Amino acid sequence: MLRLLDPRTFFDGTICADGVVRDRSGKQIRQFNARILASWEDQGSGSETGTLDEVFYFYDEPGAAAVEETRVWTLTPNGTGGYHASATDVPQPTTMKHAGNSIQMAYTLRYGKPGDTHRPGYGRLDVSGCRRRGD
Fold first, then answer.
1. Cβ neighbour number for residue 66 with a 10 Å cutoff
2. Which of 58, 91, 112, 128 could form a disulfide bond with 67, CB atoms 3.0-4.6 angstroms apart?
3. Distance between CA atoms of 126 and 131, rounded to whole angstroms?
4. What count of other Cβ atoms lies within 10 Å of the Cβ of residue 10?
């Protein structure tokens, strides 16, 4: 049975994730685990602002300690059922769209040395293959 995704209930509490970073050719260049602390604050009039406080643990060198990086997303309703999304290392705000059991965001990530940017293309979360703790 397909579960419909509601960002306010999915992004609530602690979420764990695993992933990879690929370069423009598609080659895997990094691997990570992440811990996301997600919460919502009532702004009145039935409107809530979400916060996704992410901590990434990158495993770049076999046997070496993980490299820790952080990102904090702020999600505000955009009036069309989606959310405006801004983050500490994303130069331009983006839109979080959700339908069925997936979320999509396209954004440029400020990454590396000052002035460098990395364009990861689409970020996509497919809830059909992702389980929250306790589900």
1. 13
2. 58
3. 10
4. 19
Between CA 56 and CA 66 the distance in angstroms is 9
DSSP character at residue 112: S
Residue of 11, 8, 29 whose CA lies nearest to 20 = 29
Which stretch of DSSP H or E encloses residue 10? helix 7-10
d(CA 122, CA 107): 7
From the number of C-beta atoms within 10 Å of its C-beta (0-12, 13-18, 19+), residue 38 rates as buried
Q: Which residues contact 42 (CB under 8 A, 6 or more apart)?
A: 48
Q: In what order do the strands lie in the sheet with 48-58?
A: 13-22, 28-42, 48-58, 67-77, 83-87, 90-99, 102-106, 122-126
Residue pLDDT, tens place only, 63-112: 889 999 899 999 999 988 889 999 988 888 888 888 887 888 877 777 66
Name residue, tokens 């904090």: 72
Tokens of 74: 């702020």
pLDDT top residue among 24 and 125: 24
